[in-house]
Amino acid sequence: MASPRRNASHGEAARSDSSPTYTPATPRSRFAAEFSPEAFDEPGAGEAPSAKESVTATVRFRPLSSREIRQGEEIAWYADGETIVRSEHNPNIAYAYDRVFGPTTTTQQVYDVAAQHVVGGAMQGINGTIFAYGVTSSGKTHTMHGDQRSPGIIPLAVKDAFGIIQETLNREFLLRVSYLEIYNEVVNDLLNPAGKNLRIREDLQGTFVEGIKEEVVLSPTHVLSLIAAGEEHRHIGSTNFNLLSSRSHTIFTLTVESSPFCESNEGETVTFSQLNLIDLAGSESSRAETTGARRKEGSYINKSLLTLGTVISKLTDGKATHVPFRNSKLTRLLQSSLSGQGRVSLICTVTPASSNSEETHNTLKFAHRSKHIEIQALQNKIIDEKSLIKKYQSEIRQLREELEQLKRGIFTATPLKDVTEDNIILWKQKLEDGNVKLQSRLEQEEEAKAALLGRIQRLTKLILVSTRATQTTRSSQHPGTRRRHSFGEGELAYLPHRRRDIIMNNYRNELVMPMEGFGEALEMSPKEEKQSRKGLLNWFKLRKRDSGSATLACSDGGNSSLTKSFTAPPKRLEDGISFLSEQRTWNSMLDENVPADFLSVDLGIPSDSSPVEEILTVQSVTRKSEILDDVDLLREQLKISSGEAVLHANVVKHLTEEAGISGINKQIEMEKMANDEIKCKRQIVSLENQNVHSVVDSQEKLDTSELSPVMFMCTICGFDLDLLICIHNRLFHCLQYYDKILKQLNEKAFQLEVKTADNRILEDQLEKKVIFDYMFRNKRKSL
Ligand SMILES: Nc1ncnc2c1ncn2[C@@H]1O[C@H](COP(=O)(O)OP(=O)(O)OP(=O)(O)O)[C@@H](O)[C@H]1O
C-alpha cells in the first residue's frame, strides 16, 4: 500500500478540505452529549427546529481478496489518515469524509463512529437511516449484517437499542420491526413470505409500505431471529464478482415509541421514530459477465442506484425544482430520510483494487455529494391514537380498572346482619344455595379474571422498561465510557456462520483480513472482558427466554405482530415460571401493579410474578378449595348431629314418660333423668347462642379482614370470609359438644333401660306382693 501523502493542495480534495461541511464530525461525542435523560425534552416536530446537521459520510475499505491478490491487482485508492481517501494514481484527487476506515478496521469501530449517534437519536425520537453503498463485493453486507465472528451494524444497532432501554430509567418503550426487500422494483415482505409486491403509499407522515408485517420485539435475540428468518427469503445470487451477491436492496426498520414511565400515561407525549438500516445491492460494472436473470437484476439495481445518485445530486444542488424520488421504489421509500427529516449515515464500502478503480471513484463522489445534504435532527412527538404504545397503555389501564372493580366487588358484598337464632336456619339454607352458586360462578369469574390478567400480562410484556433501580453511570454522566458490545451465543446463533467463507473458500479465505471478533476481544481491558463474559451469560439467558418471547410475541392475539402468527405457549406451570423469571429482565410493571394472588389463575400463560409468588398462590388456591370442602362436610355433620340429638332427646323423653309410673325410688330416678335432659337442652341452646354470637362477632371483623382468594370466592356468593371461618370453627365446636352430649345421652338411655328393667322386676315383685298380701288377708279372714 502506498504511503500517505499530505499535500493535497488542489483538485477535489483541496476543495473538499476547505469546505466547512468537511470538518470531521465526532459523532460519538455528539451522541454522548445528546443522550441524556433531558434529551427527551428536546423540541418536537412543529417546535423550534434544532441545529442543522449534515449526513454522516464515511468510507470503509475492505482488504484485497485472495482473488484480487492472485490476479495481481494493485492498490488504486487508499486511506490517507482518518478522514481522507486519496487516489494512488493521481495524488491530486482526494476526498474528505467524516471518517475513513482502513481495511483493518473492525465493524465495531465503524459502528461507534458511523451508527451509534443515529441509533441513539432514534431511541430519543429522531428518525435515523444508515445505509451501506458500494459496488458489488465491496463489503456492504459484511458491514451491515456481518457474521458470527464480526457482527454487523444491524445486530450492533439492535443490541445498542436494547442496551439504551435498559439504561434509560423512567421511560417505557415499545419496539417493532419490519423487514423488506426491493427486488426488480418489487417490494417484498421478508417477515411474511406471502407479502409480495406490496404497494408504497403516502400519508401526512410520509411514505409507507401498505400491509407490511410489523412484529413487536422483546429482545435482541428476538430481533435477530426475525432478521435471520427474513434473510432466508432475500434474493441472493452468484455473480462473477460475488458468489453470494445481494440481488435486492433490503430495508430493516426498527420503529421506536417511548413515553415517560408513570402510573397514568394519559396525556403524556409519546416520542416516535423509525430507524432504517439499509443494505443496498451493489452496483455492477458493465464488465460483469452476467446473463439472463442476473443481467435483469443488475439493470434494476443499477437503475435504482442511479436514481438514488440523481436524487442526492438534486437535493444538494440547491437550485433543483424537482427531485425525482418517484423514479424508483428505493428513493420513494427513502424520501423522508433524504429530505432531511432525521439523521442519515452513509457508509460507502470500497475495494482498493485497481480493477475497480472507476467504480470506487464513483462511490467516493456519491459519498462526497451526499455529505452536502442538510438534515434536521427533529424529535417526533405524537399524542394521538397512532401510537401503539398509547393504545397498549390505555388498554392495560382499562383492564386494570376492570380488575379493580372485580376486587372492589368483594368489599361491597353485603355481609349478613342481624343474624338471630330465628333466621339461622334461613341463613344455613342460604349458605347451601350459595355454595352451589359459588361453584359455577367461581368458574366463570376465574375464567374471566384469567383472561383479563392474561391480556394485561401480554400487553405489559410488550412494553419494555429498564430493570435498573438506580441511576447508573450512563452516558450522560460519563459521556465517553459507554459499554462495549459483546455478543453472546444467543445472538451469534442468528448471525450467518461464515456462510460466505465456506462457499468462497478459495476466493475469500485468503483475504488480508483482520479477525474482527478477536480483535475486539483483544482490545478489551480485563474489566471489560469480565463484563463481556457477564453479558454473554445474560444474553444466553435471554436466548432461552426468547424462545418464549417469540412465542409470546406471536401468541397474544395479534398484538405483538400486526399480522398474526402463532406458536404454542409453555405447557407446564414450571415452564411458565422459568419463562416468567427470565421475562422479568425487561419488565417489572406487572409485579408492582397486579397482586400476585391473581396471577396463578393463568397457569397456562406466563405471568410476571416470581416462582415463589406463583407457588404460594397455587397453594392458596388449593387451601381455598380445602376450606370449602371442610365447611361442606361440617355442615352435613352438624345436620346429622342435630337430628341425632333431637332423636335422643325424644327417646329420653319417651322413656321417662314410660317409666314415670314407678314407685318412689323410680320417681326419684326419673327426676334425675329429667334434670339431665334439661341440662342437655340448655347445652344445645347455649351452643346455638354461641353460634349466633360468633356470627355477630365475625361481622365486626369484616372490615379489617384481608383480601384473599377465598374471600373472593365468598364474595361471589355474598358471604364474608371471617364469618365463614368463624362458622367453620363454631360448627366444629358444636360437633364436639354434640358428640359429648350424644355419648351422655346414650349412657343415660342405657341407664334408663336398666332402671326400666329394674322397675319391671319391682313391679312384678310388687304385684306378686300385692297378690300375696291379698291372698294372705283372705286366708286369714276365712280362718
Ligand atoms: N472489511 C472487510 N473485511 C474482511 N472481509 C470483508 C470486508 N468487507 C467485505 N469482506 C468480504 O468480501 C466479500 C464480499 O463482501 P460482501 O458480500 O459484503 O459484499 P457486498 O458489497 O455486499 O456484495 P454484493 O453487492 O454483491 O452483495 C465477503 O466474503 C466478505 O466477507
CATH architecture identity of the domain at 46-382: 3-Layer(aba) Sandwich
Helix content: 40-55%
Mean of residue pLDDT values: 67
The unique ligands bound to this protein are: adenosine-5'-triphosphate
Largest sheet: 11 strands, mixed
The number of E-state strands comes to 20
**Tally of helical runs:** 25
pLDDT below 50 for ≥5 consecutive residues: which ranges?
A: 1-37, 42-49, 410-414, 469-481, 498-623, 694-707
Strand content: 5-15%
What CATH first level of the domain at 46-382 would be assigned?
Alpha Beta
- What form results from the Cα inertia axes? rod-shaped
Helix and strand content put the structural class at alpha+beta
- First-last Cα distance: 169 Å
Biased composition (Polar residues): 16-26
Family: Belongs to the TRAFAC class myosin-kinesin ATPase superfamily. Kinesin family. KIN-7 subfamily.
GO molecular function, one term: microtubule binding
InterPro entries: Kinesin-like_fam, Kinesin_motor_CS, Kinesin_motor_dom, Kinesin_motor_dom_sf, P-loop_NTPase
Structural features, described:
- The protein is of the alpha+beta class and 783 residues long.
- Among the domains are: 46-382, Kinesin motor domain (Kinesin), CATH 3.40.850.10; 617-782, Butyryl-CoA Dehydrogenase, subunit A, domain 3.
- It is 52% helix and 13% strand.
- Helix 13 (388-412) packs across helix 24.
- The chain is rod-shaped, with a radius of gyration of 42 Å.
- Residues 62-63, 134, 136-142, 242, 245-246, 281-282, 349, 500, 504, 508, 511, 513 line the site of adenosine-5'-triphosphate (ATP).
- Residues 375-462 form a coiled coil.
